[in-house]
Amino acid sequence: MTFDPQYIDQVLSENYEDAKTLFLSPLLAINAAHLVMLVQTGIVTAEEGHALRTALDAISVTDVRATPYHETCEDLFFHIERLVERQCGEETAGRLHTARSRNDIDMTMYRLRQREFILALLDGSLKLREGLIGQAARHRETLMAALTHTQPAQPSTLAHYLLGVIEQLERDAVRLRAAFASTNQCPLGACAITGTGFPIDRQLTSDLLGFDGPTGNTYGSIATVDYLLESISAAAVLLSGLGRVVQDLLLWSTMEFGYLRLADGFVQASSIMPQKRNPVALEHARAIASKALGQAGAVMLAVHNTPFGDIVDTEDDLQPLVASTFRDGRRAVVLVDAALRAAEFDVARLESRAAAGGTTLTELADHLVREHRIPFRAAHTIAARLLKAHDEHPGTPLGETLAAVSGDLLGVPLRYTDAQIAGIMSPRHFVDVRRTRGGPSPGETGRALAQSQQTLGADQAWIAAAGGRLAAAQAELRRRAEAL
Hints:
The chain is built from 19 helices and six strands. By secondary structure, the protein is mainly α. The chain has three domains: 5-97, Orthogonal Bundle (Fumarase C, Chain B, domain 1), CATH 1.10.275; 103-353 and 447-482, Fumarase C, Chain A, domain 2, CATH 1.20.200; 361-425. The strands form three sheets. It has a two-stranded antiparallel sheet. Strands 3-4 form a two-stranded parallel sheet. The protein has a two-stranded antiparallel sheet with strand order 5-6. It is elongated, with a radius of gyration of 31 Å.
């Protein structure tokens, strides 16, 4: 078959280079696993298996990576097949392709690489959680104003804010682990789309390649792309959530807020303004995460409304986009982690603004309900009127103002000293009494941090075990192949 030069330039040569970068190692592993299975089942003789294994061993990865595309081979698969033929002859080399197709090879390659992407992103997110837990543990007592609708709302603590981020990342880990489980199923043996009449052992090839098991329906093994979309979706959710946090961090880094100071290694100066400390590491993290999120959307769009079957839309042209999604996603996560580990929070400045704008008025209303059994709406009105009256006449003692506004509403004034009101409305008191599960009191954030540390340990153990199983399968594949 002779290909048009434009088709070669615009498609085949590009895809060949992408395949060398992404799929050469997975392709060689698939060849080895399939060969072991063919010999084990007697489909290929021991002598043929030995000759094929010797031919596969003779392939130089370095040479393949250095070899440019040539029109005599359609793609990387055929280039490797040609190298095997040169070593053991066309007849013996042809035995290797018994009971398989480029279709199931491709789908297996994609999953082999995809599970690596998932584990790498998950690993980055676990390290970020570890760093955030450390920061939260140092700031259980650090007061701050929690914002709603970008306005001061109620006092909280920095640990409380960070725990919200940590728990979001914990759910991201659940999603990524689920995506790994969906991905880590082996399509090899589905062949073109209907399987084969040869007595293959799909469980064996699945085990040798480190999968949890073979895929089911052979049609779906070739046609489906939901496993990929699941992992892309999990990555997109993680990056969307992280982007919102980065936006807060950048706001906190402004001179107007001044809550966060990045270490010198994460800022850049200006070419003409000596005073500048630009928090560019976080800006890069935001941009890279947004880039990854856009690529994730492009993956979704590329497979939308395509036929449920073997189709190039989910293959050569798409896979580099998948790879760059996860690569950029991990870059963003790692960068945020590194920047925050070295960052310093201005505790005094955070605490100085914790009560600004009447953030503790909710606790005054709550106190009036608890102590005087008045309806919350009435207590809410008293607190609101107190703030308004205090703004209009700041010199009037709070006790006198409270008595006046409560007397107007209830008919009976509520008597408090200024010191009592100050205690009730202090941000420290506000936080300390909020012992609701998941709340900001130091005791509760201490419990939550212990739980998050335990969850992190479990996730770290899981990823270590997953990596260990893949390494063990790789070692077993090497042993079985060398024995041929």
